[in-house]
Each structure stands twice: as structure tokens, then as C-alpha cells.
């Protein structure tokens, strides 16, 4: 397949998706009418109109009749996320006169579910744009769940087993349409429950809806400059903890509950590891805040638990000033963000399934060193023996993603420091870049509307790479610059 034919196939696929999401992006216009913000009609209407026109134009391109490859799907996803961030930033340019870079940053933060923002003031911003930010994160969270499930189902390790029970062999989510409907129902139900629970804390319906959208999507956008601390509501902070946890667990668990299948919360290795890390993280942060920061034990426990969950789920809500934290505490929190939540959820990071698989692979390799080469050491996952070839392939892919993730963070930090000779602590820059890659948004304060333009573009690219777990973007650049045979 020549380069032009390959690109035309990708463009046609993206056109289909643009055409489908155009009506969805028109939802914020209802907020424009509700709050009588008529000056926002044109800025907000540009998004569905552009998506519709782009979709129609790209759908008209000739399609290659050959079977699509996995690389084509990966390229389509990478381009789709990039284009969505760019188009969805237009209302910020037209409505707030933000620069293209700042608007693109806001769009990328929205679609990737990162809590960073370039808006100067949230408290004075139009309601339409505030809801648009929350809604972007909600749509992006739904989209990444579908993408991760599709990719996991195509691997040799999880093929045919991802959505099956332990004792029954029929698929739990047969077919693309059934899977899509199931995800929509579960995601919508979790959002509805979150709205009701947040309302219970005394917040208005407006605040509750926006917070629910960004919590269930593990996005972390808020509608006030003070963030979660704006509300001065301890009950809200405590209630957000289980909601963030619920959003970071595999969505298949909720499907099993709904279908009344045999299910155990701790039957999933990712879930076990998640709660173990929450316990360890809370203990370490609480100790550090008391020992290094001389904080009151109850306050330290509250901040330790909340920030651990916020970092591990990559939601990005923040109830502490990290500039007052010790460097070792920041490094530990950075590790939690880098790991992230469970695969099959909207959370970011390298995902807990890779940590589990990587750990099992290390044990497997070391066990093989102590036996004869003729002895077959089985590789087990989820109680099954995995063929050696499949195990080695999946292990290699897991390690590749982890290594590339570390390289991206390292290079991005060097670029920011090279082109921005700042007195800001290096640990702070490294922390915020890791937060961007993990699509978290917890910040030490480096990310702000006043940071250099080159830094903003580095963060835009890092958020894009991190949300798609590096590989799709690498494949896209390989296809564009090398072509595909």
C-alpha cells in the first residue's frame, strides 16, 4: 500500500467517527440556551459544524479495498485524538480570545482527561465553556475505554477471554454493538450515581453535574479557581474518594454485576494491586506529611488518602499545596501517577495490568535461569497457562510501552529545561511532565498560563502520547514518514 493510499484509508476511517460525534458535541449548546449566553452560540456551534463537514469530506475519499491492518486502526486513533483536541479548542479562541496554543492545550487537556488548564479565571468564565470542558473529559474518558478494550481484545494473551466468566465460555459482550451499548449504559449509570451522591453533600446541581462528569472520566477539571478546596466541604472530599476509585476500576466488573454473573471484587489481579497500592500510598504520604511537614495526624491522613487515590486513579483533584511537600514525597506521588489505574477504565498511566504482567514476567524469567533449558516453566495469567510464544510477545510489548514511557518523560523534561532556563525546581518540572503523561493533572505549580510557549507544546505532545500509551502515535509517525508497503 502506497503512502497516499494508506493515508486516505486512515482519513476515511476518521471521517466516519467525526460524522458520528458531531451531534454529541452539540450538547453544550443546551447550556448556552439555559444560561442565555447567546454570544457563545457561534463559538460553540463551530465544533459540531466542523466535525460534520470534516466527516462528510473525509467519508467521500476513496477507500482501499484491502483488509485494514492494526497499524491503520492505531493511526486513525492517534489522528482522531489530535484533531479532536484542535477542533475542540476553537470555542476557547472565539469565546475567550485565547491564543491558538492555549486553546489547543485546553482542548488536549479536555480530550485526554488531564486536569491542567490555560484559562486565566474559571470563576468568571462562561457557563458554556465550563460545561464544555467537563463534557470533553467525559466523552474522552468513554472513548479511551472503548479503545483500550478493543486493543486488549486483539492481543494473543487476552483473545477470547477478556469478557468471559471463569466458569462459562459464552462471551459476556458479544459483538461491537453490544460492547458499545454496554459501555454506554455502565458509564452513564456511574455518572448518574455520582451526580446524586455529590448533590447529597450540599452542592448545587450545576456543580454536581460538572464534578460528576470529570470524576467518572478521571479527568479532574473543576469549575472554580480554587478547585476542590473552593467548596470547603470535607464530606465532598471524602465522597469523591470512592467515586474516583469506582471510575478507575475495570468497566467489565460492573458488567458482571449487572448480569448477575459469578463475580468477586478481589478476583481481578488489577483490583487487588490497586487497593494494596492505595493502602501503601496512604501510609507513606501520611507518614511523610507528619514527619517532614509536621502536619496534624488527621489532616495528614485525609490529604494522604485523597492525594493517593487522586494520583493512582489519575483524576487530578488536589487538596494540598505540593510546593510545601518534601522531594521524596513528590517522587512517591509521581510513581503512583505513572502507574495509574486499571486497564479497561478511563484512568491514565501505564496501567496496573502492565505492572502485574511485568512482575509475573520477571519471576518467570528468573525461574527459568535456575532450571535446565529442557525444563518447560509455564507462564500463568488469571489461572491459565499461556503458551510461551504468546507470553514472550505480550511481555515484550508491555516492556516496550514502559520503556518508551520513561523515555518520553525524560526527553520532555530535558527539552523543557533546555529551552526554559528557569529557577523552578527540577523535581517540580519532572513531576508536572509525569503528571501530563499520566493524564493526571496534579501540579506543583509549574503548569500555568504564563509558562513559555515551548513548554506548552511539550505538554500538549506529552498528554497526547500518554493518553494513547505512546504506540499509536509512534505508528502514525512511522506511517507518515516511511509509508506502508
Describe the structure.
There is one protein chain. With 485 residues, this protein is an all-alpha fold. Helix content is 64%, strand content 1%. A two-stranded antiparallel ribbon has the order 1-2. A hairpin with a 2-residue loop joins strand 1 and strand 2. The chain is globular, with a radius of gyration of 22 Å. The protein starts with a helix and ends with a helix.
Based on the model shown, name its key terms.
single chain; 485 residues; mainly alpha; two-stranded antiparallel ribbon
Helix/strand layout:
Elements: H1 3-21, H2 29-34, H3 41-59, H4 70-88, H5 90-96, H6 100-112, H7 127-153, H8 176-200, H9 205-216, H10 234-248, H11 251-258, H12 269-291, H13 297-312, H14 327-339, H15 352-369, E1 379-381, E2 384-386, H16 388-419, H17 426-437, H18 453-467, H19 471-482
Antiparallel strand pairs: 1-2
Helix pairs in contact: 1-3, 1-4, 3-5, 4-6, 4-19, 5-6, 6-7, 6-18, 7-9, 8-9, 8-10, 10-13, 12-13, 12-14, 13-14, 14-17, 15-16, 16-17, 16-18
Amino acid at each position: 500500500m502506497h503512502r497516499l493510499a494508506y493515508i486516505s484509508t486512515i482519513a476515511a476511517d476518521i471521517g466516519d467517527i467525526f460524522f458520528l460525534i458531531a451531534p454529541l458535541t452539540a450538547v453544550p449548546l443546551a447550556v448556552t440556551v439555559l444560561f442565555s449566553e447567546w454570544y457563545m452560540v457561534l463559538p460553540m456551534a463551530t465544533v459540531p459544524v466542523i466535525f460534520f463537514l470534516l466527516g462528510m469530506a473525509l467519508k467521500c475519499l476513496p477507500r482501499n479495498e484491502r483488509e485494514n491492518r492494526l497499524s491503520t486502526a492505531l493511526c486513525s486513533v492517534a489522528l482522531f485524538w489530535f484533531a479532536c483536541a484542535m477542533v475542540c479548542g476553537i470555542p476557547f479562541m472565539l469565546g475567550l480570545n485565547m491564543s491558538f496554543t492555549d486553546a489547543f492545550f485546553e482542548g488536549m487537556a479536555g480530550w485526554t482527561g488531564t486536569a491542567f488548564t490555560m484559562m486565566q479565571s474559571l470563576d468568571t468564565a462562561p457557563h458554556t465553556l465550563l460545561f464544555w470542558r467537563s463534557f470533553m473529559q467525559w466523552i474522552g474518558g468513554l472513548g479511551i475505554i472503548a479503545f483500550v478494550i478493543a486493543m486488549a481484545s486483539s492481543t494473543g494473551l487476552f483473545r477470547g477471554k477478556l469478557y468471559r466468566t471463569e466458569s462459562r465460555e459464552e462471551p459476556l459482550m458479544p459483538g461491537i454493538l453490544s460492547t458499545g451499548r454496554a459501555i454506554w449504559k455502565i458509564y452513564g449509570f456511574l455518572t448518574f450515581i455520582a451526580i446524586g451522591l455529590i448533590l447529597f453533600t450540599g452542592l448545587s446541581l450545576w456543580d454536581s453535574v460538572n464534578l460528576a462528569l470529570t470524576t467518572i472520566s478521571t479527568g479532574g477539571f473543576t469549575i472554580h479557581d480554587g478547585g476542590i478546596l473552593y467548596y470547603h466541604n470535607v464530606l465532598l472530599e471524602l465522597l469523591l474518594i470512592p467515586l474516583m476509585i469506582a471510575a478507575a476500576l475495570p468497566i467489565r466488573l460492573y458488567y458482571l454485576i449487572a448480569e448477575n454473573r459469578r463475580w468477586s471484587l478481589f478476583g481481578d489481579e488489577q483490583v487487588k494491586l490497586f487497593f494494596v497500592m492505595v493502602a501503601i500510598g496512604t501510609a507513606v504520604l501520611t507518614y511523610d506529611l507528619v514527619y517532614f511537614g509536621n502536619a496534624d495526624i488527621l489532616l495528614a491522613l485525609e490529604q494522604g488518602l485523597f492525594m493517593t487515590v487522586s494520583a493512582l486513579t489519575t483524576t487530578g483533584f488536589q487538596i494540598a499545596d505540593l510546593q510545601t511537600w518534601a522531594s521524596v514525597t513528590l517522587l512517591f506521588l509521581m510513581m503512583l501517577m505513572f502507574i495509574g489505574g486499571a486497564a479497561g477504565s478511563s484512568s491514565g498511566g501505564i496501567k496496573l495490568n502492565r505492572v502485574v504482567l511485568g512482575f509475573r514476567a520477571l519471576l518467570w524469567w528468573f525461574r527459568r535461569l535456575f532450571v535446565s533449558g529442557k525444563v518447560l516453566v509455564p507462564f500463568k495469567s488469571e489461572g491459565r497457562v499461556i503458551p510461551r510464544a504468546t507470553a514472550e510477545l505480550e511481555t515484550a510489548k508491555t516492556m516496550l510501552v514502559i520503556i518508551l514511557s520513561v523515555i518520553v518523560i525524560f526527553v520532555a523534561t530535558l527539552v523543557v529545561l533546555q529551552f526554559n532556563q528557569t529557577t523552578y525546581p527540577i523535581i517540580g518540572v519532572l513531576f508536572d511532565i509525569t503528571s501530563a503523561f499520566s493524564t493526571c493533572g496534579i501540579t506543583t505549580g509549574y503548569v500555568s498560563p504564563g509558562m513559555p510557549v515551548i513548554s506548552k507544546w511539550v505538554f500538549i505532545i506529552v498528554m497526547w502520547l500518554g493518553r494513547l500509551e505512546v504506540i499509536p502515535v509512534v505508528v502514525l509517525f512511522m506511517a507518515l514518514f516511511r509509508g506502508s508497503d
